[in-house]
Specification:
About 5% of the residues are buried. Helices cover about 65% and strands about 0% of the residues. By secondary structure, it is mainly α. The termini are far apart. Helix 1 packs antiparallel against helix 2.
Length: about 90
């Protein structure tokens, strides 16, 4: 799924770059450039939003399966044993 999102964003960015090149060469209007750039930005934003949702779903799954922060370990009770060091 990640590959598909990245491919869509890359294709939209290439289309925007091509549209800008055509505009500079006089073969296209600036409206085409703005439209292509808008589509590229939307594709990138959608990819980020989908990735964020995927991460949130992964976290929810881990928590549902019992994952999460471990409780702090209980402090050990002192045994009352003091080591003896002979001089």
């Amino acid at each position: 799924m990640w590959v598909v999102r990245a491919a869509a964003a890359t294709a939209a960015r290439k289309a925007a770059d091509l549209s800008l090149t055509l505009y500079r060469d006089g073969a296209s209007s600036y409206l085409d450039v703005v439209t292509a750039q808008s589509a590229a930005l939307e594709a990138e934003g959608l990819g980020i939003a989908l990735h964020t949702r995927q991460l949130a779903a992964d976290i929810d799954l881990m928590l549902a399966l019992g994952g999460g922060r471990a409780a702090a370990p209980e402090p050990r009770a002192k045994s009352g044993f003091a080591p003896y060091y002979a001089d």
